Amino acid sequence: MPYISEANLRSYADVSGLKQMANIWIVDSLSKSTKSIFLSHSHKDRELVIGLINYLASLKIKLYVDWQDSSMPRITGRTTAENIKKRIGELDFFLILATTNAMNSHWVPWEIGVADQIKTLANIGIVPVTDKHGNFEGNEYLQLYRRIELDNVQNKFFIYEQNSYTGKELATWLR
Fold it and tell me: Domain count of the chain?
């Protein structure tokens, strides 16, 4: 299974049916979701995040993205860190949108450390994202976590155990 590419996520961001489903689900139905995800990401990857939001909306999973949270302060600081730490603890799963920007971020590695202390390994996943050249340059410690890859034949995301090709559909893991 290949890693998810930036192009894959951009295409999910542009699919009108997914956008419409995401808007309906996110705006009107989040309270109906039984599972929730904290998405750790770089704000520089907004379009990729929107693509992932659209894909996950099709699975009817509540996804927390900090820039959608009106209670977050406009300027980052201690309150931002406290709010993020609280949210990571409250939500069921923790996903890392592992892009080059995320790996170079100050916040993403800190959020991973927080999640590693609060969550079990069973509730943490990494979404390795390849750049336009097909490269993924994640940090070695990311190998501790399950990874999400794209099955091109079924056009579905699967999650795999650490250092293994044994996996299951992402939708199954999130239930």
Answer: 1
Q: Alpha-carbon distance 65 to 59, whole Å?
A: 16
Overall residue count recorded for the chain in this entry = 175
Rounded to whole angstroms, how far apart are CA atoms 102 and 40? 8
Mean pLDDT of the chain: 86
CATH code at position 21: 3.40.50.10140
Pairing between β-strand 93-98 and β-strand 124-130 as defined by DSSP bridges: parallel
Q: For position 31, what pLDDT does the model report?
A: 52
Q: Inform me whether the pLDDT recorded for 28 exceeds 50.
A: no
pLDDT in tens, 119-128: 999 999 999 9
- Which residue range forms the structural domain that includes residue 45? 4-173
Which H/E stretch holds residue 41?
Answer: none
Identify which of 175, 155, 124, 167 has the alpha carbon closest to the alpha carbon of residue 55: 155
- DSSP state letters, 145-171: SEEEEEETTTTEEEEE-TTSS-EEEHH
